[in-house]
Amino acid sequence: MRSAPDMSWRSRGDLASRPWQGRVRDYDLFKEVTIGFVIVSLLTLGLVAVLGSPDEPSVTFVSWSKNQPIDFATTATAELGRTSDTAAYGPPYNHTPGATQTLGPLDLQSMSGVRIPIDTADAFVIAPLKTLPRVPAAVATWTAASPADQTRWTTDYGKALAADKGSVLPPARSAYGPVPALIASLMAMARSGALDGALAGQNGFYNQDYTKAILFLGDGTYFQDLAAGQHLTGDQWGMMNETGNYPGQSWLWLFSFFYQVEPFASAPNADLLVVLIMAILTALLALIPFIPGLRTIPKWIPVHRLVWRDYYRSRLPISPTRARETETDISAPEAGAASADR
Amino acid sequence: MRLSGFAETSEDVEGTFDPTARALHAPRSEGAEGQVVEIIESAAPGIYLGWGAFVVQLGNLIVIAIMLALFVLALIVPFPKARRRK
Amino acid sequence: MSGVKSAPGTRSNRPSEPAEPADEVYTWTGRVRRWLLRRLPPEKLLPQDQPSYVASWIYVFGMASLAALAVVIISGLALSLNGPAWYHVSSLGHFTNGVHLWSVELFFLFMVVHLWGKYWMAAWRGGRVLTWITGVIAFAVSIVAGFTGYLLQTNFDSQWIAFEGKDALNAVGVGAWFDVADLGQMFTWHIALLPLAVAAIVALHVVLVRMHGVVPPIDAAETDDQILHPGNESEAGR
């Protein structure tokens, strides 16, 4: 009796470990590669010709400020007041106590430190306004003010915006300080397209870094609502989906699944948990050959009998001549080897 | 940096490589040339099928169904016997 | 070691003399050559036959995945050579983008069916565990490559994926160095580093298959007719 299960990965000098010396058939590797390539290419071209591909145009600050001015103003005010999601994110954008995703003592988010420093008030509002040919006087008022004043102004103006159900900015009041003027200027910049440019071009002439623009967009409701409309948000299996009717990433089904169920759906450290779980599961997939039970399922559920049915059908000789030859050829059978079904 | 009119807006912003400019002027735009319309709002979001917490997009469902179908067919459909070499 | 050695520093261009064995090695290069030729002689690397049990349609999906990968790379090359804005403004560009998208869908579709087949065949048997592991790694690295590709679309989808993707990466502390909203960084990953990684892992995977051969059926035994009476089914007269 073999002491080891024969579903092992080990090379034990058994039949599976040795080069195959049995019956063969012709095989043309290059021909198969060529045919395969032609067929797959034709299949691809056919799919493209019939179905095309999606290309939803990007959201810009132009469209945001035009379509949802109050949401834009509310977000800009939160950036000024440093209360937005980005301002409270923590590393790598800023130092915010308690903001990181942790699992007990494990705090990977802090690992990198603040390597992409973003002060939302400056990066998203003040710095763009300073690129204008005539910088609004409100900018100087703001930068000279105390943090307490700044907080008070943005909080009060934020409340006014929250109460604003229309599409016109609330009138300026002394309680709001320079904030209404700043927001109005920023709105005008956004509507003209200058804000898109200013956020992208903060390093001067060249830029490939859209971090600030993406974070600013994401802090608002407009961008997120558009995504929700396309079923792209985390709690809509969004990770798997593509815009329009096109298939997305069906292979991310398990990754998306975790975000739909508790405890992950409402966990503040959901991302950390899900990424760790997926990393472990992927490692397990790679290590299946070492895992007893998991590696033996293919034997218990014999799908392989379909794959190799021709082989199993012809493994025993049928003609009497061959039967006699086989009998004399069999030496003392290896324990277990003589029985074909184990 | 005050700019006139929307048509030139994003493209003429000095010195920035802004692909959004191209997207706004892409031939597929529903708005007339120069009109800044957010096309996303009018785009169909796709067909979704839901059973409780499971909501799957039709495209993805078709891909998954094809994977399963091909797997089953590959196991069932007979494979040609070895061809005799001349 | 017997045999006549050439004078040091000179090449022997005489017809091979029986006294100089071909596998006599005395250099690092020679040792590596001998090792490679033993593990993967030309007949194994480029065979003209295969075991008779390789007779099921499930076996085409590895090759199909490779073919799809080739289409992905070719279409990707066309897209990257024309720059990221091309496919928004050119109908040929839009078509090429479609080829890239659908070949990726086919690549994953075929790869998953290939994975299912290899699992149910327990293809790691007989010392083939590295083939299995490189296959899973190829799958995982392909997913990351696909993710970076989605980030390069320069449209709404890439904006949203960048916005969402940053959370997963920041949560594990790598977002500072892998900034999904930085087009420049993502280009390097998607068109250079990750395709090279996928190609290298896939090449290793294929070489391992050639080295070990296709795994024999579960429960195949020395007493099987195919082993007792070998030969080529394709030859006339069998």
Task: Outline the structure in words.
The complex is a heterotrimer of chains A (342), B (86) and C (238). Chain A is an all-alpha fold and 342 residues long. Among the domains of chain A are: 61-226, no CATH class; 238-282, no CATH class. Chain A has 16 helices and 1 strand. Chain A has helices at residues 29-51, 61-67, 69-80, 120-130, 137-144, 147-163, 179-192, 194-200, 211-219, 221-229, 253-260, 270-286, 297-300, 304-307, 309-313, 320-329, and one strand at 24-26. Chain A is elongated, with a radius of gyration of 32 Å. Mean pLDDT of chain A is 90; it is low at 329-342. Chain B is of the alpha+beta class and 86 residues long. Chain B folds into 2 domains: 9-42, no CATH class; 45-79. Chain B contains 3 helices and 2 strands; from the N terminus they run ααββα. Chain B has helices spanning 9-12, 19-24, 58-76, and strands at residues 48-51, 54-57. In chain B, strands 1-2 form a two-stranded antiparallel sheet. The longest helix of chain B is centred in the C-terminal third of the chain and has 19 residues, at 58-76. The N and C termini of chain B lie far apart (79 Å). Chain C is mainly α. Among the domains of chain C are: 55-109; 122-215, Up-down Bundle (Cytochrome Bc1 Complex, Chain C), CATH 1.20.810.10. Chain C starts with 27 loop residues before the first helix and ends in a 10-residue tail after the last helix. The relative contact order of chain C is 0.10. Chains in contact: A-B, A-C, B-C. Chains A and B meet through helix 2 and helix 8 of A and helix 2, strand 2 and helix 3 of B.
Outline the secondary-structure elements:
The complex is a heterotrimer of chains A (342), B (86) and C (238).
Chain A: E1 24-26, H1 29-51, H2 61-67, H3 69-80, H4 120-130, H5 137-144, H6 147-163, H7 179-192, H8 194-200, H9 211-219, H10 221-229, H11 253-260, H12 270-286, H13 297-300, H14 304-307, H15 309-313, H16 320-329
Helix pairs in contact in A: 2-3, 2-7, 3-4, 3-6, 3-7, 4-7, 11-12
Chain B: H1 9-12, H2 19-24, E1 48-51, E2 54-57, H3 58-76
Antiparallel strand pairs in B: 1-2
Chain C: H1 28-39, H2 42-45, E1 49-51, H3 60-81, H4 86-89, H5 91-120, H6 129-151, H7 156-171, H8 183-212, H9 225-228
